Amino acid sequence: MRPFALNYARPAAPTPAAPPYAYDSTRQLNVLSDGRPAACEREVLLASGATVSTAGSKTHFDD
Amino acid sequence: MTVLVLTCKQDVTADMVVTELHERGVPLVRLDPADLPGEVALSAEYVRGDFHGHLSTSGRLVSMCGLRSIWVRRPGTPGADVTEQTAWVTAECEQALYGVLRCTDARWMNHPDAAARARYKPWQLQAAHRSGFAVPATVITTFPKVARQFAENHQDLIVKPISGTHPTDPPMALPTTRIPPDVDFTEVAAGPTLLQQHIPKLADIRLTCVGEQMFAARKASDPGQVDGRFAENDHTWEAAEMPARIAQAVRAYMRAARLAYGAFDFAEDNEGTWWFLECNQGGQFGFIQLATGQPIAEAVATWLALDET
């Protein structure tokens, strides 16, 4: 028997594209290809969707 | 004294706080427990009643006794990269890392014990009621008969995960969903089911509490909208005024939960009542700060940088 709540599940959102930044272990934060910190670029953060509330995301459920 | 940030590399919300700490010249070490063992290494020795040790990552070394605060943001599971006896290595790593960190005098945001308890939805609802929040009627049951009776009593219901997680095998999304009262509840017997009185809402409220500071934000809802995370509309988050009694209840909840950080979700009804839905002890704040300009990262950095010694 299928758990009741699963009757209301829907397909998961597709995995987002790779963000335009990468972790810099020296600076301990993510940087764009030109070296600017990603966190200082509002438009980049909004476009990546990496700061939104996505409870139950792939790796964490604390959102 | 150093701030220890436990989070994954791709966490740009943590970057917002790291940037603040850099600007203030506060020493910090950021690492992901998932990289232990390997990129992250630790050593601690018990000497005459105390543990002395250090952590290292990417060429940085931090003494356990040199930690002023520990921010548990989005840490990965220790031992994630090992290939042999993974579960056992994970348990060993968790015991070693979090066990030794528990021996420090550092302040935690949030302490793992408090965080673990605060994740339980039933505990949240009870603590919320005792703290003075309005809490929707809720039942968690595996008895179809109880579910049917609850539906008869309350008529308008939602169902949502108890754990806050979504199914992963295969990956699916499980939004908070409104259900008709005459639905067939037979399958409730197949797993604990959380049913809750539906609160028709004018808006979603996200209140982020950082130490003593609170930031309330409001986002209008479409008529009939239930789960704002899955809604597609043009409404945006805006800074909101907070009723005094809500602030008082938040303080009571945070004390009861022993949390330094919490993200509260409320449903605002047409009478202006804020109904408690949940408090996520590790909830996101990046999207709120980006939308409202509220200085939440600054508040987190201030809390972490505070030197109480």
TrEMBL record, chain A:
One Pfam family cited in the UniProt record for this chain: Strep_pep
Protein name, as recorded: ATP-grasp-modified RiPP
TrEMBL record, chain B:
Domain MvdD-like pre-ATP grasp stretches: 2-111
InterPro entries per the UniProt record, alphabetical: GRASP_SAV_5884 (IPR026449), MvdD-like_ATPgrasp (IPR048936)
GO molecular function: ribosomal S6-glutamic acid ligase activity
GO cellular component: cytoplasm
A matching Pfam family: ATPgraspMvdD
Organism domain of life: Bacteria
GO biological process: SOS response
UniProt name for this protein: ATP-grasp ribosomal peptide maturase
